[in-house]
Amino acid sequence: MDLPQSHTVQPMSRPAELNPLHAALRRAFDAVRDIEVDYAIDPWKFYTIEPQKAHAIAWLNARIIEDEAGIEAAQAAYDQWRSVPGWVVVTCLRVDDPEQQDHLKERSLTAVQRVSLSMWSESIRTSWITELFVEDQRFYDVLGIDPKHELAVGILWYGHAEKPRD
């Protein structure tokens, strides 16, 4: 079985030195390198999400909300999600043993916390999203992630758009 590489980051559209948010994200990923793990590899994987995929995820979430809460709630959620400038999907290695899976997820959440704290230390706002849609096969399909090998843990939003002041 091919194991995922630790700290994998998908290519970004612009070099980090040209985009302060991406540069801060790179530094945040460096902050997780010293997390103690009990495995030969780090169990987490980070995927930076380009705008097209972020919009597809926002659309998927809106469709799920529409079924439960109606079109107005779905549109509001879609608009909110589309306004977020930075997205990182976090996964962890999937294993058969539930106890080991919980441990891997815990280690992955520790990595997310480190990334989030690093971003906050640079005054970059973050939010952690763990909605039910991360369990939806369509979410995996949009991202091209194999759910047999990786478990989606959630999405870290960063660099929130400022709300207009009244």
Strand content: 15-25%
What's the order of the H and E elements?
HEHHEHEHE
Main sheet strand line-up: 1-2-4-3
Shape, please? globular
> Which runs of at least 5 residues are low in confidence (pLDDT < 50)?
1-16
The major pleated sheet works out as: 4 strands, antiparallel
Query: Please, what is the average pLDDT?
Result: 82
What would you call the structural class?
alpha+beta
Helix content: 40-55%
- Give the termini separation: 55 Å
Description of the structure:
By secondary structure, this protein is α+β, with helices and mostly antiparallel strands. It has a domain of 109 residues: NADH Oxidase. It has five helices and four strands; from the N terminus they run H-E-H-H-E-H-E-H-E. A four-stranded antiparallel sheet has the order 1-2-4-3, with helices on one face. The protein is globular. 27% of the residues are buried.
Q: Could you give a short description of this structure?
A:
With 166 residues, the protein is an alpha+beta fold.
Name a few traits of the molecule.
166 residues; alpha+beta; NADH Oxidase; four-stranded antiparallel beta sheet; 4 strands; disordered N terminus
Secondary structure layout plus pairing:
Layout lengths: L19 H11 L13 E5 L2 H19 L1 H12 L3 E8 L4 H24 L4 E4 L7 H7 L6 E9 L8
Antiparallel strand pairs: 1-2, 2-4, 3-4
Helix pairs in contact: 1-4, 2-3, 2-5
